[in-house]
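Honest question from a wet-lab person: if I give you the sequences of every part of a complex, can you actually get the arrangement of the whole thing, not just the pieces? Trying it with mine:
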Amino acid sequence: MRYAMAIDTKKCVGCADCVVACQTENMVPIGYCRDWIVEVTDGTYPQLEIEIRSERCNHCDNSPCVRCCPTGASHYVEGGIVKVTQHKCIGCGACIASCPYDARYSHPDGYVDKCTFCDHRIKLGEQPACVAVCPTKCMYFGDLDDPNSEVSKVLKKRKYKSLIPEAGTRPHVFYLI
Amino acid sequence: MAHKRRDFIKISSLSAAGLLFGAHQLRSARPDFNKTPFSNMRPVGSVRTSTYCEVCFWKCAGWVYKDQEGNIKKIVGNDDDTNCNGRLCPRGTGGVGMYYDQDRLKTPLIRVAGADGQQTFREASWDEALDVVAKGLAKIKQEHGAECTALLTHGSGGHYFGTLLKAFGSGNIAAPSYAQCRGPREVAFIATYGEGLNSPEPTDIRDTRCLVLIGSHLGENMHNGQVQEMSDAIDKGATIITVDPRFSTAASKSKFWLPIKPATDLALLLSWIHLIIENNWYDEEYVEKYTYGFEQLKQHVKSYTPEWAYGITTIKPDVIRETAREMANAAPSVIVHPGRHVTWYGDDTQRLRAVAILNALLGSWGRRGGFFVPEKAEVPDYPHPPFPKPARTWRDAMDGKFRLADLALANGVCEATIPSVRMDCHIKGWIVNGTNLIMTLPDKQKTLEAIKSLDLLVVVDTMPMEITGYADVVLPECTYLERWDDLRIVQGRVPNVALRMPATDPLYDTKPAYWIAKKLAGKMGLGDYFAWENFEDSLDWQLKQIGSSLDEMKRIGVKNLPREYGPLYFQDGEDKEFYTNTGKIELYSTAFAEEGFDPLPVYTPHQEPPAGYYRLNYGRAPMHTFSRTANNPNLTDLMDENVVWVNPKVAKEWGLTAGQEVYLQNQDGVVSDFPIKVRITERIRFDSVYMVHGFGHNHKQLSRAHGRGASDSQLITRVLVDPIMGGTGMRGNFVTFRFEKESEVES
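Yes, you can. This is the full assembly:
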């Protein structure tokens, strides 16, 4: 079992529905977010390209955040999901500094918070909230170990990349290009 | 209610008192976004209630979930709903913010003048406020006639207040979604096909092979079903052709982006028509069987070569040819999209006629991957007495102009309100529901002039929008999450109905629009028009007429019904009669000829910006709807101000830096109330600037929206009126940059 997400930059319109759906699903306070939109424009008028990406925690195989956590609050759970145990977190912020993707934030209640791949939903057989809401259906989620999962199939078919591979974190959010 | 001068009243002046008044009605532990993090809320419960969204006009159906304490937590799309397929857009998902917005209107307000002449709002009970409205309307009826009242509306409440006004004896019922938005498109398609497009548009995008967008920025305008289908079409390898001076999100998904010189779209369309006819790329069988006026059209477009169009549009002839061929190759599975907000240059009906003609030549109307044949559920109205015929309407103020307008013009109502010598009746009373006319109508001065002439202005809204400051009576409506409403009955591939029911009791002293209208009707002796005891009984009655019931709808939210009038597409060789004079698709419009308008679209050049000025283009952001969401806590968290897009060359010329705040001044010397931040981007042409509509609110009670960004509406003072249907063209305005607010030289 290895959960992963693939996001189709050819379809994403950057509407930020994933952001607000995550906020209402996971009770993320207004002013904070677990996922966000990045838009990169290349070229000069009229030879232009835009890449739009919905970004979040990459649930890396080799997570600097888990390694550097002094209390063990940051940890892996089944399927490679990186989670934070709230009551073990002392809010020191080491993980925030170590994450190359800037995927973590300090929750006003005093712990560090981030994307969980909506593991509470996965357990019920549902998709993560961002995937389920996306109007363009540009996100694919599933088990990489299962060749028939949506995410395995789309990664077999399409060209893709991951973010900052040189950091050596072995991320598990992929961008279809 | 006649005040000599109608001063703008800031509702903020009573906000403290207003809060006190509402506070006792707050249930305990109501989250306040400024203080209590969401995380204090308990997990979501399993109870869900059906709704359909009111954040925009797409009206997606969904489910409202609450936590175990009964607090609304999230809204999720209904899987059975063909408008959203279980996926709401960011505004629908963020609809919770409309409910929790602490700046909401909380209690009825009545305008009063103090001893010092200072006008203020006084809090009132519903009974008192509605008495003032009923008496004000009765006085207008007595002095001027009932027909001297009007309803301006955008939203679900329109039906109830419309019923009230029609029963009262007025036919002046207008929505800005017509003459400020899609009106020209409807008239153009009615002239061509004998029917308009309506909403949601019957574009078969999911099965198209070629989608042509002309200034339409799908993906930034989150017309949910269409954005979803555009994504499906991308998956299936469809070609997208986007015509836009701005590199829109849709342009970035397109095989062809045509960075057209603004205001020249009609030249491109005529050139495409020319190519498709000259090269015999049109659908001969379809044109032969279904259309009228092909020979006239052929003659008409002879001179509109791509080389001619190049000089006007700056689009290279080979690109015009290649895109025309691309469309023809995909035909009939091609959509030259009619767009939605199409009131641009005043010849918009003719531009949309060219769009309609192009679709007809390609044979896409009524074909898979083109335009499907929509159906709509037929649900009878709850029984009521017949309406009296109004003595006059807004049309009588128009001197016979705009006879082809099939719906009332909001600007027409506005004009009919402003006194002039030629009219014996002016509109004296407005009910305004769910539309912030100050930011919706162009030419704010004219709107204010009309408002000054009123004896009574009643505003029904959920938020203290700018328009409320001019009201005599403000009636606070509860949000869509707290009320029953009419069944949603819209067209689509299958007819269906959707239910909106309250997820929770209304916060504060707010009421549903149906309740307000019924109470008013009671006070005005028109109670028979609202004969139901409880509103939900009327829904149950309606639902039983179509073989459902309120109980069933509470469980399922959306009921899809079988099609009744045949298949989704025309059948091969099928005989068709269209509702036009000739019974054919009119390439040559006999109706336009009769009215003295060009029966075939003619290109006319539009004014260009003077030196140092840039055409003001505006559009949508996916997380906002008009100006109505600018204070929604969830949605402002995603985007809390607009910025002005400026090409790097222009920025260099003016010495602008990214993020710098500038004021914009238009050709008439109007300067934006607030500064706006500069976004330097290659995505915009050098001859225009761009901003998202709906920001720059000047009402302080909108605590998150006040002073954030600039208002495009304020800068739209030059209105190019469409002579055919009265649409208000808004893209003929030019702006320049100012670094200080105070104007040194008034132009």
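Two things worth pointing out. The two ends of chain A are 25 Å apart (CA to CA). Chain A touches chain B through 38 residues (CB under 8 Å).
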